[in-house]
Amino acid sequence: MDKATLAGLVLAVGGIVLGLILEGGNVGQLIQPTAAMIVFGGTLGAVLINFPLVVVWGAFRRLANMFQEPSENAQSTIDALVKYANRARREGIVSLDSELPNIEEPFLRRALMLAVDGTEPQELRKIMELALDNIEEQDEKIPQVFEAAGGFSPTIGIIGAVLGLIQVMQHLDKIDEVGKGIAVAFVATIYGVGAANIVFLPTSGKLKIRLRNEQIIREMTLEGVVSILEGMNPRMLEEKLLGFLEARETTAIPEVEPT
């Protein structure tokens, strides 16, 4: 469970709702199914126009993992690579063939398989760097989906508010309903701006950090397998790979422009 994501969401939504109540309002004023349909349906439609379906689906699958801690552990990857280095030094690189079925991480398994098959270090690096580039290119699109949604939703919220005001203007003869109608119309704006700044843009920012961390682990994995193939001492290999942990911990937090 990613406690930061959960705590952030609770604080953001809770603060807004509590502020509304302290101002004399009630939660029921913010529940408007029509406004929700306009804002969220319109935002999803705009995102689907902007991105291929497979990219949008991949982004939503990532959204489901927002409340879970990353499964990949850099230290456990280093421990595994040092273990493989020790075994390769004692029994030869081919002995690692029996380890392949037990490796769940596809990138590590593929790199180690190429090493066991006798691929030259330089050739192995070229092959896996190409794979790294392809994965990175795919990963870059996932935060972009939420970033785009964060850009579309406030504007669609304004569209929803304007549509509501048009309906109000057509019933000016019922003056008692005008104020209420205007308040309801502006709920669409709150939905659009709130979704952008509480959900879409923060989600994009966190995914950028996580995907970059995953990329660093893959780069570390490639360096480790190539070093094993070149016969590096396991202790030296561990020291070398620990340098990637420092890079991972100091990954820059991407800037997210508030809407």
Verbal overview:
This protein has 259 residues and is mostly helical. 76% of the residues lie in helices and 0% in strands. The chain is built from 8 helices and no strands. The chain has helices spanning 3-22, 33-50, 53-63, 74-91, 106-116, 121-169, 175-229, 234-249. Helix 2 runs antiparallel to helix 6 (121-169) and helix 4 packs parallel to helix 7 (175-229). It is elongated. The relative contact order is 0.14. Mean pLDDT is 86; it is low at 252-256.
Summarize the structure.
With 259 residues, this protein is an all-alpha fold. 76% of the residues lie in helices and 0% in strands.
Task: Please name the defining characteristics of this protein.
259 residues, mainly alpha, 76% helix, 0% strand
Determine the fraction of residues in helical runs and give it as a percent range.
over 70%
Question: Count of helical segments?
Answer: 8
- Shape, principal axes of CA atoms: elongated
Number of DSSP strand runs: 0
**Could you name the ranges where pLDDT drops below 50 across 5 or more consecutive residues?**
252-256
Structural class label:
mainly alpha
Topology as a string of helices (H) and strands (E): HHHHHHHH
pLDDT average, as an integer? 86
What Rg is obtained from the alpha carbons, in whole angstroms? 25 Å
What is the distance, rounded to the nearest whole angstrom, between the alpha carbons of the first and last residues?
A: 28 Å
Residue fraction in strands: under 5%
Biggest sheet overview: none
